[in-house]
Amino acid sequence: MLTHEQIWRGIDRLAERHGLSPSGLARRAGLDPTTFNRSKRRTREGKLRWPSTESLAKILEATGTSFREFVALVEGDGNPPPPARRLRMRRLG
Predict the structure, then answer these.
(1) Theoretical Cys-Cys bridge with 29: which of 17, 57, 59, 86, CB 3.0 to 4.6 Å?
(2) Each residue of 19-64: pLDDT tens digit?
(3) Which pLDDT value is given to residue 39?
(4) Cβ 70 vs Cβ 56: under 8 Å
(5) Cα–Cα distances in Å, from 78 out to 17, 26, 49, 54, 71?
(6) Taking the domains of the chain in order of start, what are their residue ranges?
(7) Within 10 Å of residue 15's Cβ, how many Cβ atoms?
């Protein structure tokens, strides 16, 4: 299961990996610079705010990061995952 903390950690790590602040990452993706500010991660009442899938897609595209790499940033220590293995398929005739 993904947690609120993990998703935001992944965004912070992605920004750091590209030498950006969370605001700089948002700008690079064409988003409002305050989109990923720490102050916007919870409402005043303490309710968790999650980034939208659209925002995540934009930052991945802007940084050339695959979803698989992002998941590694979310779940792991920030190191890129090993390359995906491709399986050969035989065509049945």
Answers:
(1) 59
(2) 999 999 999 999 999 999 999 999 999 999 999 999 999 999 999 9
(3) 92
(4) yes
(5) 9, 19, 23, 22, 9
(6) 4-75
(7) 20
